[in-house]
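Forum: Protein Structure Q&A
Topic: Joint prediction for protein chains with partners

I've read a bunch of threads here and the consensus seems to be that you should model interacting components together rather than docking separate models afterwards. I'd like to see that in practice. Below is the full input, 316 residues plus whatever partners are listed. Could one of the regulars post the assembled result?
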Amino acid sequence: MIELDAHDRSILAALQEDATLSAGALARRIGLSQPATWRRIRRLQEAGVLAGTALDLDLEALGFTVTVFLGIKLATRGRVSLEDFERAISAIPEVQSVQHVLGLYDYRVRVVARDLADFERILRRRIMTLPGVGDVEANVLLSEERLPGPLG
Amino acid sequence: MDPFAKDEIIAIFMLDETDRRILRQMQAEPGLSAAALAERAGTTAATCARRIERMRARGIIRAERARINWAALGYGVEVSLRITLDKTARNAFDIFIEQARKIPEVIEIQTFLGRVDVRLSVLARDMAHYRQIYRSRILPLPHINDIEALMHLSTVRTNPVLPL
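Posted by a regular:
Agreed with the consensus. Here's the joint model:
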C-alpha cells in the first residue's frame, strides 16, 4: 500500500476537482517544481490510486430530470445466477451504475430518466421484467454532493 | 409554461449531433486525448475543442474529475448508510448534512424523496475502523431516526454513458 504525504493529498484533491489540470498548473498550486509534481502523479497512477477520469455532466441540461436509486432484492426461488442478472441489468441504457451490496438489498442501481413517466416505463418494461427480480425499492434523488474524502 | 422547463428545452436543442457524438465519446472514454476524441467523434480537432469549450461555458460539462481508487489507499471497506431523519425537528436536513460533511470518511451525501431521507457513503480501512467511525462520528449525528447499512461488495457497472 502506498503512503501519501501532504503534497500527494493536495494533488489528489486538486485532480478530483479538475483532472485536466496540467502538471505545470498543479505544481504552481502546491508549490513544487513541475518535474517533482509530474513524478508524484506518475507514482499515484502506477500505484492505481488515480483510476481514470469521470465526466461530470449537468444531467438536467441534457434532459434527464429524474435520477432514481433502486434497491433490488433477488427472488430466492428460481435460482437465477447473479452473473445473468448483472449482465441483463447492465445492458439497460438508462442504468448508470450497479453495485452489489450486502444488507437489506442485493443490488443498488442508479437509473436516469427524462421524467417520471419515462422512469415508470423503464421500471415496468425493463427492470421488473428481468429474471430473478424480487422486492424493489425506489428513492428519487433530490440532491447529491461528493466530498474529497479522507485526504485532509 | 414554467420558465425553468423552457430553459431546459432550449439547452437540449442547442446540442446538435456533433455535440452529442463528442459527449458520447468523452463518456465512453474520459481522459482521451483531444486528437483521438476528435477522430472518434468524426470531426476536426479545432471543431471538437470549440464544441467542448462551448459545452463547458454553458455548464453542460461541469468538470472532468479524477477517480480515486480508495482501496489502493488502504480503504477496503465502503458502507452505504441509509438514514431516515426526525422531520419534526426544524431544519433537520440542513443541520444533519452540515455535521455529516465534517466527517472525513464520508465521501458522498445524497438526499431522497422516498423511504430513505439521506444516504451517506462512508469509507473505512477495515471493519474495526468502520465500527469506530460508526460509533464515534455517525451515531452522534443530529436528528437521526433510523439507520440501515448496506455494505458495498463490488461495483458491477460504473462509468456511465447516458443514452443521449
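Residues 66-140 of chain A form a domain with the Alpha-Beta Plaits fold (CATH 3.30.70.920).
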